[in-house]
Amino acid sequence: QLQENQDEIENMMNAIFKGVFVHRYRDAIAEIRAICIEEIGIWMKMYSDAFLNDSYLKYVGWTMHDKQGEVRLKCLTALQGLYYNKELNSKLELFTSRFKDRIVSMTLDKEYDVAVQAIKLLTLVLQSSEEVLTAEDCENVYHLVYSAHRPVAVAAGEFLYKKLFSRRDPEDDGVIKRRGRQSPNANLVKTLVFFFLESELHEHAAYLVDSMWDCATDLLKDWECMNSLLLEEPLNGEEPLTDRQESALIEIMLCTIRQAAECHPPVGRGTGKRVGSK
């Protein structure tokens, strides 16, 4: 009897879905399309056994191409709710492979709010499975740390930090109290220098520092470690920094000191609502 009741309820849900949602998710009014996508995200979270599969997820994927920013935004926030729950990751694999390229392209959306949420969604995808995003996908997000729009840059900074800086060597756990050149931050500071030099935007160190300030404050304020890398002899087997790398580290260090002292973003970085022309 319980099974019959459940089947009956699911049949009713299916009829409502086909009779209402399937027509209204393409409604002429953007607000109604947005409500539809927001709700399907809630259904997938609440009743994932019935709704979290590709026959329902495809509607969210298709709607990511909606011409209205508010609707695209609802798609991304609905998906964030799903990717945040690691238990649901296995059910999202096919959707991720099918629509990943679209999510990556949305990091350049003309609406800043949409671009920010696209980057945040990719950060969740990264945490659920590192193999999903290719090196090229990651590169597309990395360069946004130099964006003139601060929320986009900060979201990209968090993505960059999670991908390149948040892994801690298990051996470091026993040497947390080491300081200067021997501290666990030494390799991370070098990684930051290498990233800065590879990006070839050498006049934009202040932008890079500002982008990562919220998520990597401890690293960016480890001036003792930076000083040691500049002044002390390399440890056994350690590659010394080249002149170019030392210059880059000094530039980054100056920017971190200025950021700590002045407590505001660099000149030219704001929080306007829309992206300017490319």
TrEMBL record:
Every SCD domain range: 21-106
Alphabetical list of Pfam families matching this protein: HEAT_SCC3-SA, SCD
InterPro entries in alphabetical order: ARM-type_fold (IPR016024), Cohesin_Scc3/SA (IPR039662), HEAT_SCC3-SA (IPR056396), SCD (IPR020839)
Cellular component terms per the entry's GO annotation: chromatin; cohesin complex; nucleus
Entry GO MF terms: chromatin binding
PROSITE patterns: SCD
GO biological process per UniProt: sister chromatid cohesion
Transmembrane segments: none
Family: Belongs to the SCC3 family.
Stated name of the protein: STAG2 protein
Primary gene name: Stag2_0
